Amino acid sequence: MSPQTAALLKVHPSNFRVSGFTSDVPLRELRALADEHGLPLIMDVGSGLLTPDPILPDEPSLSEALEAGADVVIASGDKLLGGTQAGLLLGRAETIQKLAKHPLARAVRADKLTLAALEATLVSGNTPVQQALHADPERLRVRAERLGDDLGMPVVPHDGRVGGGGAPGVPLPGWAVRLPERAASALRLGEPAVLPRVHDGACLIDLRCIPEDDDARVTAAARAALGALD
Ligand SMILES: *Cc1c(COP(=O)(O)O)cnc(C)c1O
Predict the structure, then answer these.
(1) Which of 16, 79, 118 gets mutated to test ligand 1 (max ligand atoms within 8 A of its CB)?
(2) What is the overall mean pLDDT for the chain?
(3) According to the model, what pLDDT value does residue 17 have?
(4) CA-nearest residue, atom 13 of ligand 1
(5) 131-172: per-residue pLDDT in tens?
(6) Taking 90 as the threshold, does the pLDDT of residue 210 lie above it?
(7) Pocket, ligand 1, Cβ cutoff 6 A
(8) What per-residue confidence (pLDDT) applies to 132?
(9) Which DSSP string corresponds to the chain?
C-alpha cells in the first residue's frame, strides 16, 4: 500500500481452483487493514450466491461478504444467482450512490429488460439453477432407473458439477444411465438434441438438469439414438 492505493480488492477464485500450500486472508482481517489505512474494501464473490449454501461449503455468499464489512460486494447476475447476464454491486447506500454518479456507470448500466428479469429471479428464488443444485438424489435415482429400465441400460452413481463458473470441483452426488459411448453423437444430433456426458468410455445421461416433465422426451430420444446404432 502506498499513497497511490485507492482501495483493497479481494477476488474469489469462482471459476478455478488453486490447491496445495495456499491460503487466503479472511475478509474481516482485510476490513481491519482497510480501516487502518482509511481505504474502501471491495469483494468480488463472482458467482452470485445470495446466502450460504451447505451444498457449496467453500463458495462465499453476498450476505456473508456484506456482514464481514465489505463496502462493496460484486457478483454476477448469472452463475449461481441464475438470472440474467449482469454485473451486480451491493453495499452501503452512500457508496453505491457515489458509484452510480460516476460517468462510467452510465456506459455500463443495465437496460429495463435485464432489470425486469433480475427482479423476477430474485423474487421467485426457485430458479432452474437452484432446482438442479438441490435436486433430491433419491428422486434422481428413481428417474434414472426408470430411464435405464426403459432402455435396458444400467444406472451408475454419477457426480454432477455446478459448472458455468461456480463452485469449481465440488461434486454433486447423483446418478446416470450408462449407454455405449457411440450413442453420444446420435443423441446430440437427435431431435430434441440431448447433451450427455462422455466419460470413461461411456455415454452418461444424468437427469439433474432435465425437468422431470421432460423425462419421456429424453427416453424417446435415447431410444432413437440407440436404434440408430444398429
Ligand atoms: C464470473 C466472474 C465475474 C464476471 O461475471 P459475469 O457473469 O461475466 O458478469 C467476475 N468476477 C469473478 C470472480 C467471476 O467468477
Answers:
(1) 79
(2) 94
(3) 84
(4) 46
(5) 999 999 999 999 999 999 999 999 999 999 988 778 888 999
(6) yes
(7) 11-12, 14-15, 44, 46-47, 76, 78-79, 85, 87, 165
(8) 94
(9) --TT---EEEE---S----SS-----HHHHHHHHHHHT--EEEEEES---S--TTSTT---HHHHHHTT-SEEEEESSTTT-S-S-EEEEE-HHHHHHHHHSHHHHHT---HHHHHHHHHHHHH---HHHHHHT--HHHHHHHHHHHHHHHT--EEEEEEE--TTSSTT-EEEEEEEEEETTHHHHHHHSSS----EEETTEEEE-GGGS-GGGHHHHHHHHHHHHHHH-
Residue 8 has a pLDDT of 97
| Atom 6 of ligand 1, nearest CA residue | 76
Q: Ligand 1 atom 14: the closest Cα is on which residue?
A: 46
Give the model's pLDDT for residue 3: 93
**Stretch 38-53: mean pLDDT, rounded?**
94
Q: What is the pLDDT of residue 15?
A: 82
Compute the distance from residue 163 Cα to the ligand 1 centre, in Å.
13
What is the CA(156)–ligand 1 centre distance, in A? Answer: 34
Residue extents of the structural domains in the chain = 8-124, 135-227
- Domain 8-124 belongs to what architecture? 3-Layer(aba) Sandwich (3.40)
CATH architecture of the domain with range 135-227 = Alpha-Beta Complex (3.90)
Distance 181 CA to ligand 1 centre (A): 34
Cα 195 to ligand 1 centre (Å):
25
Q: How much is the average pLDDT of 36-61? A: 93
